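Example record

Each entry pairs one chain with its bound ligand, magnesium ion.
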Amino acid sequence: MRVGVMGGTFDPIHLGHLAAASEVAHHFNLDTVVFVPAGSPWQKADREVSPAEDRYLMTVVATAADPRLIISRVDIDRPGPTYTVDTLRDLRDEWGGDADLFFITGADALNDILGWRDTDEVQRLAHLVGVTRPGHTLANPGLAPGTITLLEVPALAISSSDVRARVAEGAPISYLVPPGVESYIAKRGLYRAGLTGAAAPTRRATS
Ligand code: ATP
Ligand code: MG
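Structure tokens for the complex follow.
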């Protein structure tokens, strides 16, 4: 099995994530791409992130129609901050030693890679795939050649931050996120707080 791994906060998942996953799947002839919503992303400690279950359900809704795309709860179900090395260890346990893992990262996140925990083990566990992202320069952040591939993907200048800000302003998000995700955001009242870059206050179905 050749398995792509797309980690992210997915707050919310948008078409930029899906286009990148689809292009990497095509280029590397992957059997599947696993989306792994982060539990509590340590890079995003400065803002309130939407509840994990909302982010998880949005990735489920967004990928439901594509048989190549699946979701893993490993990061959501593991307590504590999410580190890529733990994600890859858990997926390796789940998929067994025969699976080749390809960890997909946008150009912006790739630039932080040397700050990731256990970069050497990350590289042992997965082949890294850096993909282009508008507004960011795609470059090897100093990893050994052969452990990383830089790949151009269709340029979609979409970010979750922008989607959140648009919802807060009442601007349209159709064609930036899948229709089901747009409906989910409206139904749950996400991102309406009016603070750019901040998620809506946590609202639980039971409260
Ligand atoms: P935020 O604005 O909240 O940081 P985001 O749009 O960057 O959200 P993340 O969940 O942080 O989304 O990103 C998950 C992964 O997807 C990262 O590796 C990121 O670089 C990549 N990614 C996000 N948007 C795009 C895009 N438009 N094109 C290519 N890669 C992307
Ligand atoms: Mg991001």
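Confidence is low (pLDDT under 50) at residues 195-207.
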